[in-house]
Queue: 2 jobs
Job 1
Amino acid sequence: MSPAAPGAIWLLLNSRSFGGVESHVLTLAAALHGRNMPVRVVFLKDHGPHPMAAALAGQGIACDVLAGGWRGLRAALAAAPPGLLHTHGYKVGVFGRVAARLGGFPCVSTYHAGEPGPGMVRYYNILDRATAGLAGGIVAVSRPIADRLPRRTRVIDNFVPLAAGPTRWPREAAFVGRLSFEKGPDLFCRLSGQAPGVEFVVYGDGPLRAELQAAYPRVRFAGQQPAMAPLWGEIGLLCMTSRHEGLPMAALEAMAHGVPAAAFAVGGLPGLIDAGRNGWLVPPLDLPAFAAAVRAWADLDAAGRAACSRAAQATIAARYTPEAVLPRLLEVYREAGWRAVDR
């Protein structure tokens, strides 16, 4: 591990692949780095080559990989104490908060997940929430998540940079995310026979892929993508069929590129989507209503799709960019005890 800059902010996570949390950390690291704040992305353990590494290096953002586990984290923190430790995920959250208390430096934890999780993950999530009070600052990405945490939790939206708008209107409805039960890829696939003339495409991978690919030959499975930015121009509608959510980065990224979203009203999505203006919002698990939303999008003429696209981008520009959100997060950092250090 290379020496850390004095007062550096560590963004700590334990990650094998690229998903919503990783997208958030990458966006946050870029926003902090762009404001001349010393920041490092730190992986608790080496799980092999990570798609974030090249993106971080391309932006000149420091990235470290620790030896893994409690001992590896404690050794790294003792060797180069951060100005602030910001944890993302249940395992690093528990380890990081305890280590920060023992080491005497500030810690902020962001809670991203809206689902309880299966099996042992459910118990890890319970422990994660039970130890939240050890953090100097607690952040949740949606109100439903905050309601399960201490009262001093601050709800702070995820954020994304605004992108160029689309120049054409593809008839592709897409699922973007992990192919696991809580994300509802099975529900997306069930929509594929209910909107004639619309191509249904799945971007992502996960434990349900083989089963769904065999059961739904009309759906194209594009696999895990190193980055979605080059692909948003191929997508006309993002479908968020999640059973549980926080505030999904996929929805923010899509809308930042002018791609509207249709979604179940879960997690932070009701605050993001203004139904009928910048997308479509339907009751949780109401698949007939979701199919009607996809057909409503497919029936729009070019002017209607352009208007919806502009409204989606306007929503991001007003409330979900680094300029709009980062000052609120920096306030949490300061309240937790972080003191900015000029480079």
Job 2
Amino acid sequence: MSSPVPTRPLHLAVALDRPDARDAEPYARTARLAEHGKFDFVTLGDTLGPPRRGESRLDALAVLARIAPVTERIGLVPTVTTTHTEPFHVSSAVSTLDWVSRGRAGWTVEVSTGEADARHFGRKPAPPARELWQEADEVADVVTRLWDSWEDDAEIRDVATGRFVDRDKLHYVDYQGTAFSVRGPSIVPRPPQGHPVIAVDATDSLPRTTAARRADVAYVRVEDTADNTAAPAAVRAVRDELRRHARAFGRDPGRIVVLASLRVALHAAADAVALADLAGAWYADGVVDGFHFRPENPDRDLPLLVDGTVPVLQHRGLLRSFYPGGTLREHLCLPRPANRYATARETA
């Protein structure tokens, strides 16, 4: 009989990326399999530039919006690039994904540093990476303000009086950033989660400030786990740095879920068990809060993860065997944020 799942749960996510896909069906199939394995969420990468020769490139947000109706519990986290895009549109698109998935949306913040991408859009040259991440930090900030621009009970839908919204519960964000300004309010009601989950790849040093200040989930990429001393030590160092910075920003450092992002290539059940051994050891040692697996071949590796790695972790009492709630925030044990404008109005 397996042990009870610990109070501090192990979190698992998996990437669905496959450069050869031409439509949403392969992604839907693997997302449903990941849901069967009780993964917290799936991710799907995206970039802004034109596809290379022989490469298929589908819009990650659109693909996961298509997957939402054919899944029930698993979280859906596309990559959204903040460079050359409008924060208002980012806010609306991610909010819409949260609505169509009934509270299972998130987004991974990314920037575009390539000059080719800049020429493709033709709006501005590619600034230095440090400036791009400063802009991304501001985008993440204004996006949450736009989500809060509708209070939860702003919609009236009173047919008799013809009133759809309570205007007193809509708010102008009046945000002025270094590269943009946004007045608001949003054109989409506040998302079911309040704030869909914000994720940042914090492997490199430049995004870590944004991760510490804004992220609910931070990834730390690990390309080689063969060195059982250096790899976990490096991940732990990033996790400790993120928590220190989060505390300096006035955040509860426990509110950042840090996931080691591992590239996996399994050919056999023994590999799946070995991966469970590694995950269990890193987790027990307090290195990370969980893992983001990046399968080399989703059709081969994901079934082995679901049928091999996951059951071993469940049997050892490290992983839950059911979804505790319906939203991604509930899967990650993160609270639903209060609406800043409603709180300010109530306080006043």
